[in-house]
Amino acid sequence: MSRLLVSTLTLAALVGCLRDDPVPTLPEKVVGNCRYTNPFARVEECRDYVGEWTEQQAQDDCNGQQLQGAKAPYTAGTTCSYPSTLGYCILGSGGKFTRIHLPGDRDAQCAPAERGCEIFGGGLFDPAPLCGGKVTEGGGSGLVTFRQPTLVCKAPMPGEAAGRGPDGQVCTWSMISAATEEGRAFEQYASCDTVRTQRPYYGAPTAMNATRDDARLADPAYRAELEWVRGQINSTACVCCHKASAPQGPSNWYVDQPGNFINGFYDRGLAMGAGWIDTVGFGAYPPEKNNGFSRATPERPNDSIFVTTDPARMKRFFEAELATRGKTKADFAGQVYGAGPLDDQRFYVPRACENGEGVDASGTIKWSGGRARYVWILEKGTPSPGVPPNLDLPTGTLWRFDVPDSAGQGVPSGATYGVAPEGTAQRFPTSGSPAPLVSGREYYLYVLQDIALPLTRCLFTMP
To answer: What is the predicted pLDDT for the residue at 137?
Structure first.
């Protein structure tokens, strides 16, 4: 589901975990502006360089924003200008700031813009009057928190054969990496509203000339493979954002696009489909728990990003598409990982805790940054947790508790090790108390405001 990654897309539609830091007062000095195409969202943006930037620094940063290494247009001494904006994403500190203008003219775009800025951009969203500083709910793009997956079992749709679940039901995880039974439609058996809380989502344009006539559609062999790929995708959660009926419109390519829907892909999406870019960071179910479908995992990192019953066949199809565009693996050599901030989080290397963070002698857990929905205590050296379903309980987890997505905001710092706060659920161990912490030993404290939004990640020594 490459386009669900929106702003370094491309992993978390988590309105409830947006930041509440005050937007800083920016310096009056404007060094210049840069207009470019966001390489992940594939939409135009424009940024102002404000404060203590030098001309050269601003030009260098601008050149680094454009797709495929092309130079972006830089204009000295002026700010960006759009007829209508959703607001601004503010980055920087200490007198040197970047102000990204987010164009738009519909209030339904406000929630995705805020999430893209704060969750994946790491900035502060300063709303324009159109957005009013508020995030709306509804339509799948403004849901409050990451909804954890649930297994839903339903009777088959009228006219369909019995399912493989209990009493002939069809059982499907409501999860972005999930699939219903092959040949069935995911939307009919699981909640796309739930799925759209699990990654940022908004409508985005297809690649240029996507609906052009394609002579390959007259080739029965090619058409058969294309329809197989379309059928596989229709059975997976990808359709929640990659279909014309998505609430804010399809996100880049979409399965019911006129003509050959594969032409709506950008090259990077094809490369993730071929497994040329590692997409392990998006998370995956094993096929035995996912109606026979699988995708790239730590054990099989070169599999496709697309959830499929036949990984080798899926890879071959996308490799062939890349070949028709004259692309080879070498063209993507610098793009080792595809999950953007989810990979950044997965490979995060913790440093020593500061300012009293950690677990004190009484067992009180202290973190900074605000209320938390997920708290881990891990052995030192444990990989940083990633996303569910397979990356969020790494070996080395000693204790974890979660705040259910239905329980409102998270809990403040001050929980006691081994005692899940009221209204939360102990996730690990599944029963009983965790192993005691040993005096003098280092441990890893990992705290998230919500999935993909870290608060505190540091090493502490138990007193």
So the answer is: 34
Biggest CA pair distance of the chain: 72
Amino acid identity at 299: E
Residue 283 in contact with residue 394, Cβ under 8 Å?
no
- In the chain, DSSP finds a helix count (H) and a strand count (E) of 7, 16
- Can you spell out the DSSP letters for 226-274? HHHHHHHHHTBGGGGTSSTTSTT--BSS-TT-SS-GGGGS-HHHHHHHT
Residue 168 has pLDDT above 80, yes or no: yes
SS (H, E, C) 35-48: EEECCCCCCEEEEE
Q: Residue 68 is which amino acid?
A: Q
**pLDDT tens by residue, 217-247:** 999 999 999 999 999 999 999 999 999 999 8
Residue 128's contacts (CB-CB under 8 Å, 6 or more residues apart) are 84, 85, 86, 87, 88
Enumerate residues 6+ apart whose C-beta is below 8 A from 419.
none
Kindly report the number of other CB atoms within 10 A of residue 81's CB atom: 11
Strand order in the sheet with 351-352: 351-352, 453-461, 442-450, 374-379, 397-402, 425-428
Question: Residue for token digits 């799948």?
Answer: 140
Across 43-47, 192-196, 317-321, 346-350, least confident range: 43-47
Backbone φ and ψ for 144, nearest 5 degrees, come out as -75, -50
Size (the chain), residues: 463
Taking the C-alpha atoms of 189, 193, 194 and 200 in order, what is their torsion angle to the nearest 10 degrees? Answer: 130
Beta bridge partner(s), residue 426:
401
Confidence of residue 36 (pLDDT cuts 50, 70, 90): confident
**pLDDT-derived band of residue 21, with 50, 70 and 90 as boundaries?**
low
| Total-model pTM | 0.73
Going by C-alpha positions, the residue among 240, 229, 162, 154 that lies closest to residue 197 is: 240
Q: Confidence band (pLDDT; 50, 70, 90) for 141?
A: very low
Do the Cβ atoms of 428 and 420 come closer than 8 Å?
Answer: no
Q: What tokens appear for 218 in the block?
A: 């007259």
Q: Is 433 helix (H, G, I), strand (E, B) or coil?
A: coil
- Which of the 8 DSSP states describes residue 58? H
**Residue 110 exposed, middle or buried by CB count within 10 Å (0-12, 13-18, 19+):** buried
Backbone φ and ψ for 49, nearest 5 degrees, come out as -105, 115
Cα three-residue angle 358-373-10, rounded to 5 degrees: 110
